[in-house]
Write a structure and sequence with these properties.
Elements: H1 4-42, H2 50-83, H3 93-111, H4 113-116, H5 122-154, H6 158-195, H7 202-226, H8 244-252, H9 255-285, H10 293-314, H11 319-339, H12 344-355, H13 359-378, H14 383-411, H15 425-453, H16 458-474, E1 488-493, E2 498-502, E3 518-523, E4 527-529, E5 534-539, E6 545-550, E7 555-562, E8 572-574, E9 581-582, E10 587-591, H17 593-598, E11 602-609, E12 615-620, E13 625-626, E14 631-637
Helix pairs in contact: 1-3, 1-5, 1-6, 1-7, 1-9, 1-14, 2-5, 2-14, 3-5, 3-7, 5-6, 6-7, 6-10, 8-14, 9-13, 9-14, 9-15, 10-12, 11-12, 11-15, 13-14, 13-16, 14-15
């Protein structure tokens, strides 16, 4: 048995190992999604006749867009393969290593220009490129799905899963933005070693790809060797894969999810495309490619402060306002890029404003809140659909931004050995239209959609949750469990230690007794336990309410506190996954009683039966004071 010190040490090793995984993983994605197109337009076809080179650049740009969009359709299949993998190392770690090794090797191959094949047989090159790029993208997706799928396998504690995700996101930001810092020095240095020229040649790009490939493989090995999969907590529902059809139907049937997704897509295309053309801005417009590292430093520093700043600001500023502030900063940055394109100081100010955005965080939280909105409106939670939306939008925006970057390079003449001296006013104008005016329009659209069409604010979501809870308690809304043909009896254990109360004894915020069928407990401590053997069906995004169904079909919700929806999950820690089977008496939730009371809310633990018409009788077995292993009720139900 591990002692406390050993457990803490192991936990930190796993956190660091997991975080290192996304360092190389994100660097690989950045190299593939941003700098591969730069290499294609500038170095891949060095020595190839210009007319043929431009045709190949256009072909590859179009193919990359098509392949990346098709990847959206393939992801559910990949997820199913990963989920059904069974090895002594687990289901995720093998794909982490295999996906990383294969995709890294193929990344190096395409950065060789498929060993210069375009110079001798461009038709064969085009055919092989399609095969290699698709294979690379598929194995990268295996690595991606396996990496983020490991979070619930490493820990069943929702707070720890949040820590792992935060660590991974932080190192991912370093991996992504770090490329901007090193790409020019690396490509220039290795080109100079090979040719004696201070430029970004094919030799330098190949060295860059090799470095990224090695980093990606080492990062995958760090995850594989430094983490342990705990497969016993993986939810059974994970076997039911979400299809693209499910995702689109879920979005269509939930108007708030639709508007949130559309606003984020507009933002994401603008953000990723602009990141892709910043190199062209420094090289062809400013004529200072060697100072491109500044963009990476700014993105890293600003990102380092905005992520931890968000929860602090959100305590005083609504997230819709924070989204608007970020979008307005982005809009101002484009104006600085447009009118101050030849002034490095204005460009630097623009880069600071461009990266000062909370769009990703706001989108994730708003999409999560749309789950309860959809459940109230349509009777369906669609959690899996909601979780799949943002990754899908990221892939779509990545595909379109790749197309934008490649098109800019072709139409603005920023290909091959061209330099800033070769740029005409028409080239610069073309560059501005696609690199800044188009993303500016998308940023404005994103702002307008979010401000005028997205209605799920924190206050509105609290109202939705309260209304949904009322409907669940009254039996107007429930899970779609089949009615039993005979009466069965379920014994309930107390879900908390404390004083047993009838619902009529519990007064809501308006001083009215709670209605519905169930009971309540005034808790002695901040622990909530499973009242019977069953399955956790859902958890509200605010973490204070969960739905659970017994093995014999009794459906209930456990609600911690009155008014606690306004805490937005603060002070609550879940020890299960939705879809997980649990045993009676198993710890489900920890909550901070002092925090709840300090906020002015009641910490009473309420249990409602959500299908009261199916209940034949309630037989009380308890006294005034109960412990979580005490039997409190016998419920006869159909």
């Amino acid at each position: 048995m591990e002692n406390a010190s050993q457990k803490k040490s192991r936990k930190w090793r796993e956190r660091i190992a997991f975080a290192l995984g996304n360092l190389g993983h994100s660097a690989f994605y950045g190299a593939l999604s941003t700098y591969f197109i730069v290499f294609v337009t500038s170095g891949m076809f060095d020595g190839v006749e210009k007319s043929i080179a431009n045709k190949l650049i256009g072909l590859i740009t179009g193919l990359v867009v098509i392949i990346r969009l098709a990847e959206v359709l393939v992801d559910p299949v990949i997820g199913n393969v990963v989920d059904n993998t069974q090895t002594k190392w687990g289901k995720f770690k093998p794909w982490q290593v295999i996906g990383s090794v294969v995709s890294s090797i193929l990344l190096v191959v395409i950065f060789t220009g498929i060993f210069g094949l375009a110079k001798t047989n461009w038709i064969l090159f085009a055919i092989l490129f399609v095969i290699i790029f698709i294979t690379l993208d598929v194995f990268y997706s295996f690595c991606d799905v396996a990496y983020w799928g490991m979070v619930p396998a490493i820990s069943e504690d929702s707070k720890e899963r949040g820590v792992l995700t935060s660590f991974g996101s932080f190192t991912g930001s370093i991996g992504w933005n770090g490329l901007t810092i090193i790409v020019v020095p690396v490509t220039t240095f290795f080109t100079f070693l090979a040719t004696g020229k201070h430029e970004q040649g094919p030799q330098g790009w190949l060295a860059f790809a090799i470095i990224i490939a090695i980093l990606a493989i080492l990062s995958a090995l760090a995850v594989a060797s430094g983490t342990t999969e705990k497969t016993n907590v993986l939810r059974e529902a994970a076997n039911e894969k979400t299809t693209i059809k499910d995702v689109f139907l879920g979005i269509i049937h939930n108007d708030q999810m639709l508007w949130i997704s559309l606003a984020y897509l507009m933002y994401s295309i603008a953000y990723v495309a602009t990141n892709g053309v910043l190199f062209y801005l420094f090289k062809f417009v400013l004529g200072k490619p060697n100072e491109f590292w500044i963009a990476g430093i700014i993105a890293t520093v600003v990102g380092f402060f905005t992520a931890p700043l968000y929860p602090i600001l959100n305590k005083f500023i609504p997230r819709k306002t924070l989204f608007a502030i970020g979008q307005l900063s982005m809009i101002v940055s484009y104006l600085l890029f447009i009118f101050g394109r030849s002034n490095l100081v204005l460009i630097i100010i623009g880069l600071v404003l461009f990266n000062f955005t909370f769009a990703q965080l706001v989108t994730v939280l708003s999409l999560t809140d749309s789950i309860e909105y959809g459940q109230l409106k349509n009777g369906n939670r669609n959690e899996a659909v909601t979780l799949a939306v943002r990754p899908m939008l990221d892939k779509i925006s990545g595909a379109f931004s790749n197309g934008i970057v490649g098109t800019i390079a072709l139409l603005a003449g920023m290909t091959g050995s061209a330099t800033a001296k070769d740029m005409t006013p028409q080239n610069i104008h073309t560059f501005e239209l696609l690199a800044f005016y188009l993303p500016l329009a998308l940023a404005i659209l994103s702002l307008l959609i979010f401000v005028f069409k997205v209605k799920i604010t924190e206050k509105e979501h609290a109202k939705i949750v309260e209304e949904l809870q009322t409907k669940l308690a009254s039996g107007e809304a429930s899970a779609t469990e089949p009615e039993l043909s005979k009466v069965v009896t379920t014994e309930l254990l107390a879900p908390a230690d404390g004083s047993f109360m009838k619902l009529s004894e519990v007064l809501d915020e308006n001083n009215r007794p709670l209605s519905g069928t169930g009971f309540a407990i005034k808790p002695q401590n901040g622990h909530v336990y499973a009242p019977f053997d069953g399955t956790v069906k859902f958890t509200f995004s605010t973490k204070h309410t969960l739905g659970i169904i017994s093995d014999d079909g009794l459906e209930a919700i456990i609600h911690v506190g009155l008014g606690t929806v306004n805490l937005r999950g603060e002070g609550f820690v879940s020890h299960y996954q939705d879809g997980q089977k649990v045993k009676a008496g198993q710890l489900l939730i920890e909550f901070d009683q002092d925090l709840i009371k300090k906020a002015g809310y009641s910490d009473v633990v309420v249990t409602f039966f959500t299908q009261p018409k199916r209940i034949e009788s309630l037989g009380q077995l308890c006294g005034e004071t109960v412990a979580h292993n005490d039997k409190v009720l016998e419920v006869s139900h159909k």
